[in-house]
Design a protein that fits this description.
Elements (H helix, E strand, L loop, with lengths): L12 E6 L5 E6 L3 E8 L4 E8 H10 L1 H10 L5
Antiparallel strand pairs: 1-2, 3-4
Helix pairs in contact: 1-2
């Protein structure tokens, strides 16, 4: 699966690892993706979301119903 947050759309960043001798090699900064199950009262069922740590904070702040409504408005299946 891709390292992408379903709530925020966070994707990996890219950059360089720099060694002691200052040789640069490509590396990837992955977001902290977690699989979380939430009870969604408006749907009457549980949904499993792949969310980043920041996405979990967004769900805590805005509520799962509002976040799921935004995801479905984008056309993603939940």
């Amino acid at each position: 699966m891709s390292a992408r947050c379903q709530v925020l759309g966070t994707v990996p960043g890219f950059g360089h690892s720099i060694s002691h001798s200052h040789v640069r090699t490509k590396r990837r900064f992955n977001p902290n993706i977690q699989s979380k199950r939430y009870w969604v009262p408006s749907l009457g069922r549980r949904v499993t979301l792949r969310v980043s740590a920041q996405g979990i904070k967004t769900i805590d702040r805005d509520g799962i119903d509002a976040v799921v409504a935004r995801i479905r408005a984008r056309g993603e299946k939940v």
